[in-house]
Amino acid sequence: MRNLLLLLLFVALSLLPANGQDQAAAQTGYFSKNLYPILQKANCRTCHVVDGVASATRLHFPDEDAPADRIEAFGKS
Question: Quick check: 3 and 44 in contact, CB under 8 A?
């Protein structure tokens, strides 16, 4: 239940406009600094891996030691 609430929060935050622009696009690093930690805390990575329950989905998290620019690219994909 907690994971679902965190996911809903993530979606809501990503849809908020900022002066007519998408908030995530308006700030460099917004996804990796603000939204990605929410996904990490919700343990989304445990299912969205090659052998995880959600392996059939298109959502595949970058490696845990991925650089910030790779995480940003993941957020925009």
Answer: yes
